[in-house]
Amino acid sequence: MGVSRSGYYDWRNRAPSEHTKEDQKLLSRIQYHFGRSHGIYGSPRILKDLQEENIAVARKRVARIMRENHLVARCVNAFKRTTIKDSALPYADNILGQDFSASEPNRRWVSDITYLRTEEGWLYLAVVMDLYSRAIVGWAMDRHMDASLISAALEMALKARSIDSELLLHSDRGSQYCSRGYQSALEKRGIRCV
Question: Are strands 191-193 and 167-170 parallel, antiparallel or unpaired?
Fold first, then answer.
């Protein structure tokens, strides 16, 4: 390795440097905060915790110590359940059979609800999409995901498009889509729920 014998033994018997000792102390605090977060905090959040303890350290140093000690943050995706099936409510059979194609516009629509995290809390978004063009023809947003949300999206879609033939509307079996009010609104307009 090109190192003298005396140099090797000098290095081997040398006491750890002050920097190495400080790294060991920091490692102890980093491991504490990492464990307390159940392994989801990365170096920016760990740094914030260390700064709250009045420990002056750079983020790059925290990141290096974490990397050297294999402390890798786990990504945790927030999960929000949007489909809540109510067995007491009627629901339509899935006659589309996973065939999400359409030969002409305004024959097959699909609708669903998703959610977005904002600084003010969850925001729910209901959309109606025409399978022929894959265009969003109606949408609505609200802080609550009830039948009025999907009804507003449907109303926008019906105002945007003229329906002159039999329309199939596919959605999940969530309680909003199975609600009596929504189902009667579809029936009144001649829309077949599938």
Answer: parallel
Length reported for the chain: 194
Contact (Cβ atoms closer than 8 angstroms) between residue 66 and residue 43 = yes
- Of 37, 31, 32, 38, nearest to 71 by C-alpha is 31
Enter the pTM of the model.
0.51
Domains of the chain as residue ranges with CATH: 5-68 (no CATH), 108-193 (3.30.420.10)
Q: How many helices (H) and strands (E) does the chain have?
A: 7, 5
Q: Is 69's pLDDT higher than 50?
A: yes
CA atoms of 71 and 93, how far apart (whole Å): 49
Which two three-digit tokens encode residue 187? 């029936």
